[in-house]
Amino acid sequence: MEPTGPHEEVSGNIAGRIYAEILRSNFNWLIPKTCLIKPPAAEATALRPDVIVLDKAKLSNEPLWQKEPIICNGNTIQLVAEVVSTNWQDDYARKVEEYAFLQIPEYWIVDFRGLGGLQFIGNPKQPTFTICQLVNGVYQQQQYRLGDTIFSSLFPNLQLKLDNIMP
Fold this sequence. Notes:
Elements: H1 5-25, E1 29-30, E2 36-37, E3 51-55, E4 70-71, E5 77-83, H2 88-101, E6 106-111, H3 118-121, E7 128-135, E8 138-144, H4 162-165
Parallel strand pairs: 2-4, 5-6
Antiparallel strand pairs: 1-3, 3-5, 6-7, 7-8
């Protein structure tokens, strides 16, 4: 299933703002245009996040990277962002577990249309930006709404609001 235009616009806005912060902070990280996550022992199919931030220094430990944009080791990944679509259950449940298992330090769930279930985004449903930070192998989640300034421990100087990335 291909994403919608607005979905791609939000993904691009997120990637652009993160990339500007990577440059400003002089981090040795990159955001590939396309990338799959496929741990070697994984039974499940590969994951294709909307935005992924990789540590360039750790790419030399990736067995497939030189031939294909596939990441096998979770420690190469600094951040993953998913823009919520109609299959919101994947982003709020399955991927939370999978990304935590891979030890990815931060996972962003960007629900710009307020599609998630009530148990995930509350009632009434509204656009929600969730930052999941890995603490002792489990994600601690912080939700942000329109107008809120979003805080990321990976990018403490990032000036970002959900309003800035909306289509």
